[in-house]
Give the backbone structure.
Amino acid sequence: MKTRLLMLTALFNALFGTAAIAGEGEKVSYDAPAVSGINQDGATVNFADVYKKGPTVVFFYPKADTPGCTKQACSLRDAFADFSKQGVQVLGVSFDQAEAQKKFKDKFTLPYDLIADPEGKIAAAFKVEKMVKGLLNLAKRSCFLIKDGKVIWQDYAASTDKQAEDIKRVLAEAK
């Protein structure tokens, strides 16, 4: 019976992958995607230019101004002063249009750019899963830390209200 259970568990993990723990992420090292997108004000943001300014957090969220996405964005907003002291840049990305990003940014006084990715090109470059909910395409909540042009940490099961804590932990470990 125990052998059968182990075999079934192995088969399940092989077919569906293991469940990721929110906020845990994994240390990695690969070139950060050199993509660009339109921010909430309609300006083009070249990610490679942002990476050059210092460590960069790129987080993906399903939909602007929804409960989980608001918690994630506000977690990073509340830690933004601490991040700025360390030279950390923050970019938020979702499939929303620039107008929705602008409303979200203004409503919650988010101090960083929100990038509109309605076609999912930026998400695809970061290998962020696309979810379909009804008629909506949504980016799966994910987070990346980029340092010196390399992704050094990725979390495809990013947390919501503890996103900033996760980033602070990873930054401390990266020193």
About this structure: Residues 26-174 form a domain with the Glutaredoxin fold (CATH 3.40.30.10). The first helix runs from residue 2 to 16.
